[in-house]
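Limitations
The structure tokens in this dataset are predictions for the assembled complex, not deposited experimental models. Users should treat interface geometry with appropriate caution, especially where small molecules or nucleic acid strands are included. An illustrative entry is reproduced here so readers can see what is and is not provided.
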Amino acid sequence: KQEVTQIPAALSVPEGENLVLNCSFTDSAIYNLQWFRQDPGKGLTSLLLIQSSQREQTSGRLNASLDKSSGRSTLYIAASQPGDSATYLCAVGKGGNYQLIWGAGTKLIIKP
Amino acid sequence: GAGVSQTPSNKVTEKGKYVELRCDPISGHTALYWYRQSLGQGPEFLIYFQGTGAADDSGLPNDRFFAVRPEGSVSTLKIQRTERGDSAVYLCASSLTGGVMDEQFFGPGTRLTVL
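Predicted assembly:
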């Protein structure tokens, strides 16, 4: 059974710092991996989608990497801003329907 | 709007009542997913539609839960005899074809509270 873990559960850093969020999964037979952002009381916003054949994806200040063999993905956020404060979730796509299996998220707080 | 919409945004009901939650996917998206998110947890898969048919309902917790998508667009998640443990945020997502290359786009969710 696929399990997805995100560590730490919460992280608080000063504005301007670069930071890394971690995601690990137990079964390397995944089709893709997505990173999402969730703001309180709001829906999920997709940040980056990495296909299983890819090693990384970049969008603006965000860079996500994927290492299937070790069952790990990282989300790197450069020059963090208070507006980056949110919960970040990773999800792996698995199964014939590519249903997503989720981690519990990392709650990120960027202090001004 | 071009995004996924869900109604109502909040639903408070009493234990034992019946509720319906609606999802309007992005126009043209054939794949539709329902997930449930409990406080402090990641979402859990409930059911997947490809067109009008439920291609995978393995995530539905029991037979009190049912979902339909009669015309291949709007979907309704139906919960009978609600229990306090059903309280959660119910999320709907759609993707273009349900294929491996597709991103899933999420609605804002419906927060269900069962008293």
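Some entries come with short summary sentences. For this one: The two ends of chain B are 33 Å apart (CA to CA).
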